Amino acid sequence: MLGPVTTGRPTRARSHRRPRGRILLVLLALVATVALLGVAFVVLPMLRPAGPRPLFQLPVACGETWQLGTYPGHDDYDVDLFPTEGEAWGRPVLASYGGTVTVAGINGSLGGRTPENPDGPRGRGGGYWVKIDHGGKWETQYLHLLEPPLVTVGQRVAQGDQIGRLGSTGNSGAPHLHYEQRRGWDKVETYFDGAPSGITTDDREYTVKRASKNCPTVS
């Protein structure tokens, strides 16, 4: 009696491996999930309402009177600060309120304006600058500093701590401090010691004088 007839070819074992397409889909799903979580981590805090406005003070020494101003083309809510007495170059720039430094470096390019060469070439942007996160979606920015900031990213500062010196780096025509207060993504009118500065739009030239109450606290 004849046995089973074969072709002489070996029988292939059935593969137990998952199809590559299914593995690729799983990997893509994991990547998409991680990306969504990352976006949520960044975006969701910004969607929460801002906290109460901190009691910001002028970013200059206690008791000094400074001129706050704006001009057409300066951008809404931007404030330029000039001392009303004494030399402007190198004056201390102070934190308006306590917080954490998030930027301390160069915005744009520095240019070549210095106390020794005040009419040197302009740079671009804000030059040496600092940004501080005060919590509750509130930030302040300090631009055109004379030299590298005196603080570093991640450093905690208290109100009145010196963060730099006044200069004219970046796109600046004379030594001054360009200053901004921000709530979330929005720039807002600056308040000092609870009072509005009155600088809201840049449709006209406007100046006002204010005395600094950025004074050491008595413990």
UniProtKB/TrEMBL annotation:
TM segments? 23-47
The answer to whether keyword Membrane applies is yes
* Origin species: Micromonospora tarensis
Instruction: Output the SUPFAM superfamilies linked to this UniProt entry.
Output: Duplicated hybrid motif
What domain of life is recorded for the organism?
A: Bacteria
InterPro entries per the record?
Answer: Cell_wall_metabolism_enzyme, Dup_hybrid_motif, M23ase_b-sheet_dom
CDD domains tied to this protein: M23_peptidase (cd12797)
UniProt name for this protein:
M23 family metallopeptidase
Q: Give the record's keywords alphabetically.
A: Membrane, Transmembrane, Transmembrane helix
Which positions fall inside the M23ase beta-sheet core domain? 90-188
